[in-house]
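Issue 218. Parser rejects a valid record. Input:
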Amino acid sequence: MSAPPPLITFGIPAYSRPALLAETLASIAGQTSAIAYEVIVCDDGTEPDTAATVARFPAANFFYHRNSPALGPVRNWNEVIGRARGTWVMVLHEDDTLYPWYLTAVLPHLRADLAAICTRTVSGATPPDLVAPSSPEHARTYGYPPRFFLKSAMTPFPGVLIRRELALSLRGFSEKSGPLADYEFWYRLGCAGRIEVVRTVAAFYRVADGQWTERAWPTMIRQTHLLRLRIAREQFPARPRLGRWLARFFTYRNALSYAARFPEKPASLARALQLGAIPFARLPSGWVWGALKQIA
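Output the parser choked on:
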C-alpha cells in the first residue's frame, strides 16, 4: 500500500551544486514543526555527487530523480510540481534555504481558499544568523492582490507555498517568460486566488555571481516593463493612464538600481532611464507604493 500524500512537497530543481544542495536539504530536515512532508530533487545537471547528497537524508522523505534529457530551468521547476504529491508545493532552488521556523510560521495560515502563502525573505551571499521571532506581530499576514505586482512580486523565489492543483491548472511556469517566469507565474497565481505574506522572515535567497538574473538583466528590463504594462491593462481598465504611469514609474526605479549595480549600459537600460522624464518620476518610491496599496 502506498503512503498517504503528504501535506507539503518541497521540490528542488538541482543543477550541479551538491554542496549548496546539502545546505538546502538540511534546512528542510531541520524544521521545528513535525508534519508530513516529502522532498523531491529533480536533477538537471551532471554532477554525480548530487544523488549521493540526497541519499544522506532519510529515504522515507527525500527522493531523487534524474532528468534525461535535461529540461532547462523553467521546465525543471514545472517537473517538481508535476511530481509532487503534497496539497501544497514549494519550488526551492538548491542554493536557497529555509530558517528552522519556516513551517511554524506558515502552518497556522494554510487554508483551502488560498492560492499561495509565503514569508518575508532575506538575501545575501550567505544566510545571516537570525533569532526565531517571538512577537505575535511577526505571525500576522497581509494580502498581496494582483495590482501590487505593478511594483514587484511579493517575494524573491524561496519560501512560496502554492496549492498544487491550482498550479497544475494554470500550467505552471511559462518558458516564454524566460527569467521572468517566476514573476509572471506569481501574478497569474494572484489573479486566480488570494496570496498572503507572513511578516516573519523565514527564507533566505542567495545572491551570487553567475546567477540567471545577473546574466539576463538587460533583457529583463524590457520584459519586466512589458509585463507591468500588461498588469496595468488588466488591473486598471477604467484608469489606463494611471496604470501606464505606475508601470513606467516602477520600471524607471528598477533602471536606477540596475545602473547603480552594473557598469554595462545597454540600450534597454538607456530606454528605461528615459522614463525619468515622465511627470513626478522623482517622487519617493515609498510614497507611490503606499498610494498603490490604498487604491481600491
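Fixed in the parser; the record now loads. The longest helix spans residues 212-235.
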